[in-house]
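[09:14] KT: can someone run the structure on this one? pasting the chain below
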Amino acid sequence: MNLSFFIASRYFRSKKKRNFITILSRISMVGVAVGTMALVIVLSVFNGLEDLIRGLYASFDAELKIEAALGKSFIVTDDWLDQIRHTEGVEVLTEVIEDNALFGYRGVQKVAKLKGVSDNFLDQGRFDEGYFRGDLSLGSDTQPEAILGMGVANVLRVDLDNEMELLTVFYPRASARAGSIDPRQLYNQNIIRPVGYFSIEKQFDDEYVIVPLSFVRDLLEYGDRRTALEIKVADGYRIRDVKRSLRNQLGEGFLVRDTDEQHASLLRAIQIEKLFVFITLTFILAVASFNIFFSLSMLAIEKKKDIAVLKSLGAKDQLIKSIYLKQGAIIAFSGAAVGLLLGFLIVWLQDSYGLVSLGVASSIVDSYPVKMVWTDFLFTSLSVVTITLLASYRPATIASSVKTIDHL
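[09:31] RB: done, structure tokens below
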């Protein structure tokens, strides 16, 4: 066994009376354990929230979305759409026309996003997550039907059981006559029957009304223009590979974005918040490691005679310094090991049994979502190592500078 490690471990496991230094060392170990455990738990919660948001958005958004790089819409042709459909890895292509419109229902009005989609939209399991009530149908060209976000339905007080009341949709007319005194010449309007509503995430619930593509095309007078194309990737193909192929095929005039890129700002905010929480808890861990500094400093003072004896036997300054560095490492690593184990256990119990609930009624998730990632354990361990070396270096230097002649 390495001599410096042997002496350091003997100091740590000393059977002598429990003096203040020993108590301080144990407190140091507990502080490191608690800080490490907190880091593992909090980072796992952020991972879980990030995964939850990705899952909720992925249930509503397309795996890939094609939009114009400039402008609001673009013209499509049957041949061009067929080329995209036959791109390797493309399973479903959904045409989309989306814009803000005014909705009215029994005297109540609200501005929301009108999203017209082609028939295959509902074949992709878009509402498998969250809550859905009513009929999962968009009707036909002659009898169109609408699916509303729960927030929109609540504001408009939509009654799905009342088949006599229809939803009225208003949109500014592109070809409105200048100077007309008839307000009906300024906008298009049409009626549609609401048949269901969904609840996935507040952003979607409060903004979206899903209707057939033909309904929006006629109301907005879009003709062959579309605002987006949504793509479902076939099984066995990687999204990034299909995205790369589509970008090469479509050129710089179009944007091809996956689900993360469609909500890049929100996911980036979560990652930045996770980073700042990691830094904050690392500082708390550093404060807890001050106990290591004080305990080693006092140990160096108490063991001056032992150090003098070792030096008289030929021990070099580097050996003395190594003893105290390893003493700090033993304290910190013991605490870190306990903290990592407790953090793993608590996160596993939360993931398996949902011990801590969100505290709000939700049909999507009942308890705090968590997810363990090995890199969190790695960075936490590296933080402990760095803090330990910094906290132990000064006491080790003090111990190595003891003069033999003064303490024998």
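[09:33] KT: thanks! The chain has two domains: 3-57+266-406, 62-262.
[09:34] RB: yep, looked fine to me
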